[in-house]
Amino acid sequence: MLKIIVKDGENIERALKRYKRKHRNIQVMQNLRERQHFTKPSVKRRREIQKAAYIQSLRDQEDI
């Protein structure tokens, strides 16, 4: 659970911005989406390898 303590005299917009930053950093929504269904470890590893290969190909294209 995220707790944002609003200090005396602090703008609510600034506190909201801190909340959004913390929410994004702990990746709440990403974890919820991942846990909606089970993914086998072999499938997860294959996706990571495919993603790494794709990113590497993009970087190789930039160098050309």
From TrEMBL:
Entry keywords, A to Z: Ribonucleoprotein, Ribosomal protein
InterPro entries per record: Ribosomal_bS21, Ribosomal_bS21_sf
Cellular component, GO annotation: ribosome
Family, per entry: Belongs to the bacterial ribosomal protein bS21 family.
Record's protein name: Small ribosomal subunit protein bS21
Species of origin: Hyunsoonleella rubra
